[in-house]
Automatic annotation (TrEMBL), chain A:
InterPro entries: Cyt_c_oxidase_su4_prok. It comes from the Bacteria. GO terms for cellular component: plasma membrane. Coiled coil: none annotated. Keywords: Cell membrane, Membrane, Transmembrane, Transmembrane helix. It comes from Sphingobacterium phlebotomi. It is a multi-pass membrane protein. The keyword Transmembrane helix applies. The chain crosses the membrane at residues 27-49, 55-74, 86-107. The keyword Transmembrane helix applies. This is Cytochrome C oxidase subunit IV family protein. It is found in: Cell membrane.
TrEMBL record, chain B:
This is Cytochrome oxidase subunit III. The chain crosses the membrane at residues 31-53, 81-104, 116-135, 181-203, 224-244. It is found in: Cell membrane. Residues 1-245 form the Heme-copper oxidase subunit III family profile domain.
Amino acid sequence: MSNHENIATAHDHHDHGGMDKKGIWRIFFVLLALTALEFLIALGFVHHWEILHKGTLVTIIYVVLTLVKAYYIIAYFMHLKFEKSSFIVCVGVGFIFIVYFIVLMLIEGDYLLYHLQSHPLFPNN
Amino acid sequence: MSTTTVSQLDKVKDGPWSGGKSPWNLEYGKIMMWFFLVSDAFTFSAFLIYYGAQKFAQPTWIDADKVFQSIPGIAESGQPLVFVGIMTFILIMSSVTMVLAVDAGHRNKKDEVVKWMLWTILGGLAFVGCQAIEWTHLHHQGFWFGRNPATGLEGDAVAQALAPYFTKDISYTAALQFSNLFFTITGFHGFHVSIGILLNIIVLSMTLKNTFERRGTYLMIEKVGLYWHFVDLVWVFVFTFFYLI
């Protein structure tokens, strides 16, 4: 329990790291703006004006925007940016396997795509 | 005599990992919450990656804009993304109120913590309510675990029942995979949100009973906050992969 108190007091001193009320609302507006941008692309450019079409490019844009949003949530709302760097590495390093998993499943999906097309499961109209 | 050089071995070690202090300057429970969230992130990643792989493997896929295009009580069709946009906004908003509660906890302001926790719980309940409406809507259309609108039909009726949900080729398998994965993944996420609401209610009642005031720290709010932000984080990905792409 004494350890607990040490940390609690240490907390008060340096840990706020730029996340006062103003900072919190700033991050909120960043997240809102990114979401609004996604809607603008989806409803405006793709659906309404038909400037862009659903496909690789639009997908990449969405994924990048999503990752940026994830960064802001993890770094600022979950406060990870202000933790010790060794902790950040410890939490983050496992996600190498997720990247590897995505690559594996895309290779598998590509294989299946080829075989599903040569043996259709349902007669495509 | 005048030399003060200390041999390398006799020097007192004072690095973060030399003992005597917490190297990460984090409380044990908070570290464990992080590690739990990492493992939970793996579970959600596995679900979403499987969804992506299926979508990639099928020659054709359902068009999300045609499945999700109603705003309950306002428009029956023709409004893709609007309702899910409202849901996303609610969840981001409740994440903000959660950070504000944590911030109030840092300043030991009990009243503010209570106020922001109440807003957070309200946001969570609103989100789960919207999710329930969405599920009901899809269920009425014929989507469910192991079922799509064409299940039980034969011949031309199959293509006819599925035609409203596809822009390209129609596939019974793709519609079934979509249905299964949608209910599994949003269900698992909704389950997390429900647990989050429960945890929020527990820490709120602990705040009201002055438990944290007596303890001298509102760290528990931070730990539950981490979980709540994680739920929001997962929704960011679910939103992209189910509704946008």
